[in-house]
Amino acid sequence: xxxxxxxxxxxxxxxxxxxxxxxxxxxxxxxxxxxxxxxxxxxxxxxxxxxxxxxxxxxxxxxxxxxxxxxxxxxxxxxxxxxxxxxxxxxxxxxxxxxxxxxxxxxxxxxxxxxxxxxxxxxx
Length: 124
Known about the structure:
This protein is mostly helical. The chain is built from 7 helices and 2 strands; from the N terminus they run H-H-H-H-H-E-E-H-H. The chain has a two-stranded antiparallel ribbon. Strand 1 and strand 2 form a beta hairpin. It is elongated and about 50 Å long.
């Protein structure tokens, strides 16, 4: 991936997050003590935020820096990966377990989850 691609991806993600939070560029800039032009440059892919600013954005939206860089499309509060799902298993444990499954096991799991979701919808 070229540098310009990263800039454009990061810019789009920042723009979408800002808009999703209902903030103008001016409000967003004020929250981070930067100029509105700086935010515009980030969103247009002209420049990419430095590491410190990426960390601030990640903390603000409670996401990972990898999400902001387009490296991981997990759109959830990354701290929730430590939430307990069942007994002693966390969401992160579940992800690690499933990632080690064979293709066939993943397919079976996906079909099972779809069936459970469908059943849940019918019970509503």
